[in-house]
Write a structure and sequence with these properties.
The protein has 408 residues and is of the alpha/beta class. It is built from 13 helices and 14 strands. Bound molecules: pyridoxal-5'-phosphate.
Length: 408
Amino acid sequence: MTGNFTGSFTQQEPIPEAGIEAALNVLRHGRLHRYNTAPGEIAETALLEEEFARFTGAKYCLAVASGGYALGAALRAIGIGPGDHVLTNAFTLAPVPGAIAALGASPVFVETTEDLTIDMADLQAKLAGARALLLSHMRGHICDMDRLMAICDAAGVPVIEDCAHTMGAAWRGTPSGRHGIAGCYSTQTYKHMNSGEGGLIVSDDPDLMARAVILSGSYMLYGRHRAAPPAEAFDRVRLVTPNVSGRMDNLRAAILRPQLADLAAQCARWNALYATMEAALTGTDGLRLIPRPAEESHVASSFQFLLPGWPPQRVQTFLARAAQRGVELKWFGHPEPTGFTSRHDSWRYAGAQHLPQTDRILAGLIDMRLPLTFTPADVQLIAAIIREELAATAAGANGPHETALAAD
Ligand SMILES: *Cc1c(COP(=O)(O)O)cnc(C)c1O
């Protein structure tokens, strides 16, 4: 048996020194609010937007207070409101249906495939009557975007992409977030850039972006943005769009700009850890790895695998055994929401929805983060522990250990 793992699955790297210096500079001059600029000064937030627009190839970009806020603002900017039905993935994180519900709209969940992406047949079946699709690239798995856009375009249903886990990723060379009418990103600590909290919206649509800028709380200072549409776009919306305050500030933008400059290199490091884990788990009995399509350029900051057909008790035995050895795995099949992990059936405000395929897949879905504080040797050790504890759990299946745990 190999040793135990003693690292932390939630420890990110420090903010790069250039970010710390830029943050100190903002703190020293005190102009944290994005519209508080000295004569001739360009706010850090405006510069971040300009740089992120360039990074994604989008015409426009807006920085906001969180990823969830970005989703809500993008939905509202395309006119989603009370009573509207908005399709979204049944397998996603709570702020996604939350952003829909916050507008008084109803989330309608679409089934999940074994590859952890949206089920196209179920999507097709649910398109009628839907006002939009909020497509979540959950855990960084990108569906066939060519097919998805063809289906949604044919039905006239706009697509907003939730790219919380795909910042830096692409489908057939087009950046994630650039297929639909808008792409939304998070810069919360567990995502690909870390400002504690924060979000970004990109789009080529001037009306959408003008509305989003006003929604975010620009007052009549939108002229200070550098990645916003021209004044005419604002003339159409500025007096009919409410201020739903949710701006980003210069401190966060200052922390993010050096991280954006490093993002491609960081993505390559995540993918190297992922490839190590994938190779180390290949061929493990009872475990199904998630295939990655050739068209997908992923940024794999987390790792998923399936234990198909495992009864809940046996999964719990495995999780407990792995945890004893320092490997904290998340399980989307847990009947109760725990930590960050919840499921469509715990979002009761959305009403009960019948999603048997998603339920079956999530029952065996195991997830772990791969923070950049891990070394390849850490990943090898974690994989070895997973293999050993899976084998030990399978060997004891229906034996005394599983029965004892079940009796707890
Ligand atoms: C984190 C996350 C969000 C929301 O981001 P916040 O910045 O935390 O509001 C949205 N979607 C997914 C899939 C996420 O993981």
